[in-house]
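User: What would this chain look like folded?
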Amino acid sequence: MPEAAFAALLAAVVGALGGLLAPRVIARLPEPDPAPGGPGGVVTDGEAGHGVPVPVPAEAPRPPKVPYADLAARPGLGARLALISAVLAGALGWQLGLDPALPLWVGFAVLGVTLSYVDWHTRLLPKRLVLPAYPVAVLLALLAAGLAGDTAVLARAAAGWAIVSTLYVLLWLIAPRGIGYGDVRLSGLLGIALGVLGWAELLVGTYATFVVGAVGGLALGALGLVDRKAFPFGPFMALGAWSGAMLGPALAGWWA
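Assistant: Here's the prediction, encoded as structure tokens.
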């Protein structure tokens, strides 16, 4: 079996298993602190917005949050998440082959699908999923560097973490209603994963996040599926990073 096909099959199987387990993880997430006063009150959960109390206009109250247990219990969820994770991870396997970075990216694919599902339905990126992913990502980056015998992998991962996180922090400070603190918290993982692959992937993946978010937000807003002024950005971050991993070298070569 060709290496690319074997890597794709292996990544798809691992991704599917991760997707099947995702509902169990979602069901065990602790609920965020309720907003005082209910509708028209304030949002205090740093996973969603800004980490500080943010007034919610009375004329546009925040809809009640769907409990994580209810999200996890939806029929067929495990199969759907498994299918999406398998497709995305399998495509990465085909593109990367048996690259030392493949374990990191298969894990990122499963995490991205899980976070996207939660964020889409709650507009929250739970820190209980995001924060523990950092040490795992660092360990997998170390593994990739060790297998490749190249310390530049770690340098790029560290630089990607710093660059992408700084970019999101600046955007959050400049336009806090456009970027939530949950997005800032997630951004470092994108930087690590993309940096491990290369500078082209880091550049393309970071840029693609905003392009996909802008185009997708406008399209979904025109269809009435989201509020164009307040839609979950997590799914677009995950998809943009995945696009960078898949298309980064080709686009960089075309641009050169």
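The chain has one domain: 3-255. If you want, I can go into more detail on any region.
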